[in-house]
Amino acid sequence: MPLGSRGPWDKSESRYCGVETEFSDDVPGLLSYNISSGGFDFVVAPLMNPSYRPSSVGKDGRNSSVMPVAGSDLVLSPSEWSSRVVGKISSWIDLDSEDQTLRLDSETTLKQELAWASHLSLQACLLPAPKGASCANYARSINQVLQGLNNMQLWLRVPLVHVDDDPEEKSSSHPNDSWELWNSFRLLCEHHSQLSVALDISSSLPSPNSLCRWFGEPLRVAILNTDCFLTNTRGYPCLSKRHQNLVTGFFNHSIQIVISGKLLHKLHGGSSGSAALNSNNNAERVQTHPLRVYLDYVGYLYQKMDPLPEQERFELGYRDFLQSPLQPLMDNLEAQTYETFEKDTVKYLQYQMAIAKALTDRVPDDKVSDVTTVLMVVGAGRGPLVRASLQAAEETGRKLKVYAVEKNPNAVVTLHSLIKLEGWENTVTIVSSDMRHWDAPEKADILVSELLGSFGDNELSPECLDGAQRFLRQDGISIPTSYTSFIQPITATKLYNDVKAHKDLVHFETAYVVKMHSIAGLASSHPVFTFIHPQHSVEIDNRRYKKLEFEISRDTGSVMVHGFAGYFDAKLYKDVHLSIEPSTATPNMFSWFPIFFPLRKPICVKPGLPLEVHFWRCVGSTKVWYEWCVTSPCPSPIHNPNGRSYWVGL
Ligand SMILES: C[S@@+](CC[C@H](N)C(=O)[O-])C[C@H]1O[C@@H](n2cnc3c(N)ncnc32)[C@H](O)[C@@H]1O
């Protein structure tokens, strides 16, 4: 019984809530108690009797050829095993113990349990948290299993602690904090895509910055211990505001919740206390599942979330999905692509506002009947900027003559029919040409274009507008007037693993357009390249180089950088902007997703140390490309030399 629904579109994994249980050799009874009666969606249950130790098998007269597992595979149907049970690997195992017997017993048990879970086609197994400072032998065993595993996921349990919050942890032999523990383990397993994290949440939480890092990690499950719940005035459980926000963040990132622990609050219907055990043996004695109050509270938090805005709903399928950027100069866009752009009313309203301001600046109120402004839309597509220009003229009472220049012959067909349809024959002239080569019959007062990519200049707006500014008057206005690209270091395990899955260099040296969702921004974004139009220098040079330095704040802890998110901010005219840079983003504009520049090898950065990054925009006779690298804290290779993997054609 999922937590409820936030609407018919709601297919999120985080609708489901599980419960951690004790070992039971009556698995159907366990499911009936926790799922059918208890209301949970799945159980996280031990698969093997916790008293089992391989080294003592046979010594006590038990049959050494039979594993002490919970029932047989026949007790549930295959679909019940896979949808209702997450295997909990024995928590006593310690693969890095000094005690050789324990270490070997642990390895044998771990492998037996995982083999059994995989035989049952479970979707996931919960691995116990590493016990000491070192986790090398544990990681080695897991890594061996991962090499031949079916598609089962392994969730490494990690207690959410942070040294800054827990001075005792600092002096213990534990790795610095939870993230460091996870990071060592996943590095030893080479970022394996079937290894993910289960965070154990308790009553104290690390700093917000430190918590944010987890949203770029493959976090699948958050285990809420009952002791992290507060008690409301009526004795029922509730969560602190910070815990509530964290849980809402989990819901938003499709991270499932598992309730764990004993009843510490009032049970629905009256009784309270910790006497009720989370076991099917008590099914007859306890009417209501003892952890039901926690499930209900989590369900209440889920249902009180705001529904996703329509646009976000539409974009759900694009989340964290890598796309190749468009090449509108080299390729001709298709009708469908134009149609998607044209739905973005916010973008065109911003243009209309900018054009209206430029028109009023150019033609004083007392000259409106004498002056006709020549406006050229260069790269007119199917005409939305022509419409925005005519509306701006009407709004300001200025007279306009429009040229619509477009190099895509298919879009020109649409422009011709539009002119007839809208009755623009006397105002608009269509020109089927590349703006860089058009011999204009007169000069323009205003040049309007939208040739921007997610990284501003990456669809070659600078090169196109340099070609077009020949026919802009000396004092003419370009809309946009300028644009700047930005980058921000990010943790993005999913994007990194998707790039890695191609198993070649080319994909690591390519930039992708992506609706970023499961990522963590690690510092504020910094400006990279700026272009101003028209360019007044005698020798125009569109090559650029920028060295950037980011600092990871101390309360974040160490971070893993998988690459860079790229954005742009375009000044259309005066104070009218179009931006996808997070701090200045134009609300409700959806034409551009950010761009992702991956790193071939992720780089770990300690807090307080600078992350030094270099970006180049290179220009050749037939193409433009970017190269990028990191030089501190450690050098990366320079990505994409000579544009060998990724370039934009001129
Ligand atoms: C991103 S689309 C924008 C279309 C339209 N202005 C809009 O805002 O919906 C860019 C358009 O510019 C055109 N374009 C790109 N480079 C061009 C060039 N050098 N000369 C003429 N048109 C160009 C493309 O074919 C495409 O139709």
From TrEMBL:
Residues 39-304 form the PRMT5 TIM barrel domain. Keywords: Cytoplasm, Methyltransferase, S-adenosyl-L-methionine, Transferase. The active site is at residues 450, 459. One of its GO terms (biological process) is regulation of DNA-templated transcription. The record marks 341 as: Critical for specifying symmetric addition of methyl groups. One of its GO terms (cellular component) is cytosol. InterPro entries: Arg_MeTrfase, Arg_MeTrfase_PRMT5, PRMT5, PRMT5_C, PRMT5_TIM, SAM-dependent_MTases_sf. It is found in: Cytoplasm. Residues 310-479 form the PRMT5 arginine-N-methyltransferase domain. Its main location: cytoplasm. S-adenosyl-L-methionine binds at residues 338, 347-348, 406, 434-435. Residues 482-648 form the PRMT5 oligomerisation domain. GO terms for molecular function: protein-arginine N-methyltransferase activity. Pfam families: PRMT5, PRMT5_C, PRMT5_TIM. Belongs to the class I-like SAM-binding methyltransferase superfamily. This is Protein arginine N-methyltransferase. It comes from Punica granatum.
